[in-house]
Design goal:
heterodimer; A: about 575 residues; alpha/beta; Phosphorylase Kinase, domain 1; Rossmann fold; Dimethylsulfoxide Reductase, domain 2; 4 domains; 6-stranded parallel beta sheet; 6-stranded mixed beta barrel; 18 helices; B: about 250 residues; alpha+beta; Alpha-Beta Plaits; 4-stranded mixed beta sheet; 7 helices; disordered C terminus
Chain lengths: ~575, ~250
């Protein structure tokens, strides 16, 4: 008979013996595999694969985009005529960004603005600050503020001219990120084999690294080289400012004058840069007037464009900022100075990171590729154009259309503004329409209005064709900003990735956090001899304020410079002279 | 005839913009990893910045896109894998990694001379809603396995299906292009069949300024780099680009 003791011995022996078999180890493996493949791992959705076309709204270049969609959902973006920049490649992630603004009190904003408009006086005006002028929405703002008592339309200074890179044989770039998002990438790289590129810049940027010649000038002295090349100052004087050899400056000037058509470009194509290009006889060839697509005649009664700097300090009782599309970023200190005490600030934005930090009320807007709109002219577009950002997915509920909101304040119905503008373009009978699906171009006069509108909404583009440039304008003379020699601010601030939007895809961390290709947010690169070790905590300070940063030691950053990733908090710190200092915490 | 897919990368054209890195991550459902750093991140395609080691202003930089070099002979990762999770496809010459077979021992990572393999330290996850943007042709890999570039094998399958539907025996070269090649704004990356003498990559391979990384190992890699700059060509024999003068050690895992 089996005793209880024998039963226990058998059970214990079995348990011990089991450990010597593969069974428990197999169980551990299976458990590990199960936990690896747990149901929480996302599974890609299936569906019909479709191709749709739109234009990227992340910068004025407005590249044509071919979207691969599963059903209605874009899953991959690619360029139509060439590759997109990294921001554009992952642009379809933006609607799901964790930092996206999703709520805002529209009623509160409307009431506050209505009260401000009612109480407005010439000393306490109402202004719209449009960070990306030149769109149909910009015309809406101008029409709206014209109808509002003491209304003002503010915008950053637009380029004084457009450039035609395809015509140039020698290009002198004064710190412009020509190969890194300055113009339309496909056109820049198509024209690149045909021109010699001289990059004058203190830092060896991506453009400088691939230029035919890099002139490492003293930080902030690029303007002096431009003036010397245009013959406004002597080579000797320029050599003293830029740190280049006198002979090198003379050689550069000779190269520009003797090797066919020449072009000078700078990050901002100001009147001064236009003047240098006129001195090189580039008008009508390498530099042309900026052309805009026709607008309906009824829109012409619009408010003029006024630069923010022209406003009197403390003269704005209400300010509406359109930050719904990435554009210029003016330091907040410059904007704040123009506000009257107790002024209302309403910001249309898709992120909490930008001006929403300073707003009385921030209203969420649709984001690319949800938002519908058109694009301003690219800096390297020698002809007028009209391209729509066709929404690929619908925006979530609760989003505000900034143009409609501002139009409603002035009692304008602007629902069909884009269609009206397309009608005006069609009525002009000029130019051609290109459709990306079949790659064909046809004259606008051969297309019916409805078909023209449909083609634009299917991702087509209108271009005006070559036009006479007319007489060159008389560029205003501008005094070059003095080079910073203040010992209090010994460094010159420069930004990496100047095309960076307010928000970028979370995948951009692959470039900055998971590799060191670009500077991570809140990181500043300094020369090894600056006295900081890699990873040190420090404060980046400018006359506008300061922010905490982590130091990355980089021997490619020249002494006397600090390189940072472009973020709104950094843009708030940047003044015209770019002076800064880094202080160890 | 079997294919032998390969790539040519013109370093003199690469601006280091990173579009290839992003396009690769989008195409292959590589997740953003909030906790990752440059040692633990997953970047099938990674661009290294190298320099000539001189002091400013004589310092000159170049960008080297680095991905699995698709070794054709004595493939080191395939040799050491105890699970046969790495296979060289004789029909395409592509070195494939099967996540389902991988047990995560990371021998292959140690064996890879190019540090082009990546370990999944975390469960793949995306910010809420972003999982809707995943590519339906590629399954996300689970935690605990190794992954690497496979020349966008999902695209190859798609091209095969399209060719079959069109009644073609073989895929047309323009129908199969990896995401990084399609994304490169400067046209620095070219792709094609090295066995086809008329292909761009075969022509680029014959260029005297072309070189392969660590050619002395004799692994017959299929990524041909190109540069007219002597100091750039010298990196071919450095242990890895991060090991060039002034560079940083960068060994993951």
């Amino acid at each position: 008979m089996t005793t209880r003791r024998e039963l226990f011995k058998f059970a214990g022996g079995s348990a011990m013996g089991l450990l010597l078999t593969p069974a428990p180890w197999r169980l551990i493996t299976d458990t590990a595999l199960w936990s690896e493949n747990w149901p929480g791992i996302p599974r890609p959705a299936g569906g019909e694969i479709r191709t749709r076309f739109t234009h990227c709204a992340l910068c004025p270049a407005g590249c044509a985009v071919r979207a691969r969609c599963v059903g209605e959902q874009p899953v991959a973006l690619a360029g139509v005529d060439g590759g997109l920049c990294p921001f554009g490649v992952a642009g379809h992630h933006l609607p799901y960004h964790p930092e996206r603004l999703r709520q805002g009190d529209r009623q509160q904003a409307a009431s506050a603005l209505a009260a401000a408009i009612a109480a407005s006086t010439p000393d306490r005006g109402v202004a719209v600050l449009d960070l990306q002028p030149g769109r149909t929405a910009s015309w809406t703002y101008r029409r709206a503020v014209a109808a509002i008592k003491s209304g003002v339309y503010l915008a950053p200074e637009e380029p004084a001219c457009a450039v035609n890179l395809a015509a140039a044989r020698t290009v002198l770039s004064l710190g412009a990120p020509l190969l890194d998002g300055w113009g339309r990438p496909n056109l820049v790289f198509r024209a690149r084999p045909d021109f010699r590129l001289i990059q004058a810049e203190a830092i060896e940027s991506r453009t400088a690294a691939l230029a035919d010649e890099w002139l490492p000038v003293a930080p902030g002295s690029e303007t002096a080289l431009g003036r010397a090349v245009a013959g406004e100052i002597g080579a000797h004087e320029a050599a003293g400012i830029t740190g280049l050899a006198e002979e090198q400056i003379s050689q550069t000037a000779r190269a520009l004058r003797e090797n066919g058509l020449a072009l000078i470009v700078a990050p901002e194509m100001t009147s001064e840069v236009l003047r240098w290009n006129l001195a090189l006889s580039g008008w009508g060839k390498t530099v042309v007037p900026r052309r805009e697509a026709p607008v309906p005649k009824t829109w012409i009664k619009a408010a003029p464009v006024i630069p923010l700097a022209a406003m009197r300090d403390g003269s704005l009782g209400a300010l509406v900022i359109d930050e719904s599309v990435p554009g210029a970023h003016l330091p907040w200190a410059e904007i704040e100075r123009k506000l009257a005490p107790g002024a209302v600030v309403v910001v249309f934005t898709w992120s909490r990171a930008g001006y929403a930090r300073h707003a009385t009320c921030a209203l969420p807007t649709a984001v690319y590729p949800e938002a519908e709109g058109d694009l301003p002219q690219a800096i390297d577009a020698p002809e007028a154009g009209f391209r729509l950002t066709v929404p690929l997915i619908p925006p979530p509920p609760g989003m505000t259309d900034p143009a409609q909101f501002v139009g409603a304040l002035a009692g304008l119905d602007i629902k069909d503004a884009l269609r009206e503008r397309a009608g005006a373009i069609h009525a002009s009978g000029r130019g051609s329409l290109r459709t990306y699906a079949d790659g064909k171009s046809q004259a606008v006069k051969d297309v019916k209005l409805d078909d023209f509108w449909k083609a634009l909404n299917a991702g087509g583009a209108w271009t005006s064709g070559t036009e006479d440039s007319g007489k060159p304008p008389k560029p205003a003379s501008i005094t070059a900003p003095a080079i910073n020699t203040d010992t209090l601010w010994p460094l010159r601030l420069a930004v990496d990735s100047p095309a960076a939007a307010v928000l970028v895809s979370p995948l951009m961390a692959k470039l900055s956090q998971e590799s060191r290709l670009r500077l991570a947010p809140r990181t500043a690169a300094l020369h090894p001899k600056a006295g900081f070790e890699d990873g040190a905590r420090a404060m980046l300070e400018t006359p506008y304020g300061g922010c905490a940063i982590e130091v990355a030691v980089d021997a490619s950053v020249p002494p006397g410079m600090v390189l940072v990733a472009d973020r709104p908090e950094i843009a708030d710190l940047r003044g015209a002279d770019g002076c800064a200092r880094v202080v160890r915490i | 005839m079997n294919k032998r897919y390969g790539m040519s990368i013109d370093i003199d054209k690469c601006t280091g913009c990173g579009a290839c890195v992003l396009a690769c991550a989008v195409e292959n459902n590589v997740p953003p990893l909030p906790k990752a750093n440059d040692r633990r991140g997953i970047t099938w395609m990674r661009v290294y910045k190298i320099d000539n080691g001189e002091e400013y202003p004589e310092r000159r930089s170049a960008f080297v896109p680095m991905l699995c070099q698709q070794c054709g002979v004595e493939t080191p990762c395939a040799h050491v894998c105890p699970q046969q999770a790495v296979e060289l496809d004789p029909a395409t010459g592509i070195v494939g990694q099967m996540a389902e077979r991988c047990l995560g021992c990371r021998y292959c990572m140690a064996a890879c001379p190019y540090h082009a393999r990546y370990f999944n330290w975390w469960d793949p996850s995306w910010p809420a809603g972003m999982e809707k943007t995943l590519n339906p042709d590629v399954a996300p890999r689970m935690r605990g396995v190794v992954e690497k570039c496979n020349f966008c094998h999902g695209r190859w399958h798609r091209a095969k299906e399209r060719a079959a539907a069109a009644g073609q025996k073989d895929i047309r070269p323009e129908d199969y292009v990896p995401a990084c090649v399609e994304a490169c704004p400067t046209g620095a990356i070219r792709f094609g069949d090295l066995n086809d003498p008329s292909s761009e990559v075969a022509a680029a391979r014959r260029d005297p300024a072309s070189f392969r990384l660590l050619e002395k190992l004799g692994t017959d890699t299929k990524i041909y780099y190109h540069s007219k700059r002597d100091w750039v060509r010298q990196i071919a024999n450095a242990p890895h680009p991060g090991g060039s003068p002034g560079g940083k050690e960068n060994i993951r895992g």
